[in-house]
Amino acid sequence: MTAVLLLFAAYAAAQDSKSIYKKYSDMDEVNAVYISSSMFNLIGKLPSINISESTDEINMAPLVKSLNSMFVMDCNDERVCADMKKDVDKIIDKHKMELLMEAKKQGETVRVYITGNEKTVTAFILTASSRDGFTFISLDGNMNRKELEKAIASAAESL
Asked: Which of 7, 65, 101, 150 has its CA 20 to 30 A from that of 77?
């Protein structure tokens, strides 16, 4: 039963991200990218995708293979950014997403939110807000929580 609820929550979060993408992606003020599960399957056939951070090396291939979709949007128009941020905040609140990480540096705030359980992350949202704009990244799938947290920690070290 828990697995069914988790899958439903992931599907609902992905649909909400898709609706935000549809609402904003055709605007001239917004740069947008969508990557489908078929593309992730193709990328996942690569033998390994390694990221080296100091002494640790992270193989991203298992994480990539676990993804169903990815939406990325970036905006620098103040009005559009404010509207997009409100819509993203609604998703975060609606799905009671957990704030996994927050980093603040020189007027920019980066937040990472997730939904899932202790083993699997089914939805991931990253937002980056600054005086100059707003960025929204949404991933959905069945990501190994430990692997995702390791990749996020590695990326956070470079902020």
From this structure: 101
Rounded-to-integer distance, Cα 52 and Cα 144, Å: 19
Measured between alpha carbons, how far is 86 from 37 in angstroms, rounded to an integer? 27
Non-local (6+) Cβ contacts of 114 within 8 A are 97, 98, 100, 121, 123, 124, 125, 145, 148
Is there a contact between 134 and 85 (Cβ–Cβ < 8 Å)? Answer: yes
92 CB-near residues (< 8 Å, 6+ apart): 113, 125
Sequence ranges of the domains in the chain: 2-35+67-157
Query: Distance between CA 134 and CA 84 in Å, rounded?
Result: 8
Query: pLDDT (tens digit, 9 = 90+) per residue, 2-49?
Result: 443 334 444 445 568 889 999 999 999 999 999 988 887 776 565 555
